[in-house]
Amino acid sequence: MSSWNSRAKFLVVTHGKLPEDISPAEVAHQVFITLKSIQNITNAVLLVINAHAESNSTLIYGNTTNTTMMYGYTFSSYLNGKCNVDTPLLIRKWNLNYEFQNTINETDYFPSKLPKQFMGCTLNVGAFGPEPYVMKLNRSKYGEHDFLVRGLGLELVILFAVKMNFTVRFLEPVMKMNLSPILNQFAMLQTGKTDILAGSVPYVQAFEPYADVPVAIFIDTIKYIVPCPRPMTKTRKIMTLFSLATWSSIGFVLICTSFLFWLMSNTPDRRSNFTGFNILTQCFSAAWAVLLGVSVPQMPFSLQTRCLFIAYVWYCFAISTVFQAFFTSYLVEPGYEMQLKTLDDVIRTKLVFGSYNTMEMVKGFLPFDELNNFEETIYDDVVECVRNVMFERNTFTVFLTYFASYVASLSGVTDESKIVCFLDDPIFSLSFGSALPKGSPLLGLFNAHIRHCLEAGLLQVYWSKIKHDVKLKAEQINEESEYVVFNMTHLLPIFIVLLFGYILSATVFLFEHLMKMCESKKVESSKCF
Question: Which Gene3D superfamilies did the record assign (predicted)?
Answer without folding.
Answer: 1.10.287.70
